Amino acid sequence: MKTLKEVAVGETAKVKKIGGNGPTRRRIMDMGITKGVDVFVRKVAPLGDPIELTVRGYELSIRKSEAEVIEVEE
Question: Do the beta carbons of residue 5 and residue 13 sit within 8 Å?
Fold first, then answer.
């Protein structure tokens, strides 16, 4: 199992599954990150938090803890 947190900068990954509990899961899905969508990792802050993504043409920032519950295809 590979998570979004493990995807290298400059790579694209396809979301396979979103875990987490209610509020975290809802926040991720409200940003447009859903099963089957491609996520491009643009930048990771020096300490690994936040992670900047491009999803469906939008630039987003997510926390490292949120990236850990997003499973991607290898």
Answer: no
Which alpha helices (H) appear in the chain, and where do they start and end? 22-30, 64-67
* Per-residue confidence in pLDDT tens, the chain, 74 aa: 899 999 999 999 999 999 988 998 999 999 999 999 999 999 999 887 899 999 999 999 999 999 999 999 97
φ, ψ for residue 23 (rounded to 5)? Answer: -60, -40
For residues 72 and 14, give the distance between their C-alpha atoms in angstroms, rounded to a whole number.
Answer: 6
The Cβ of residue 36 has, within 10 Å, a number of other Cβ atoms equal to: 8
Annotated domain spans of the chain: 2-72
Q: What is the pTM of this model?
A: 0.88
SS3 70: strand
Residue 19: phi and psi, rounded to 5, are: -100, -150
| CATH (residue range 2-72) | 2.30.30.90
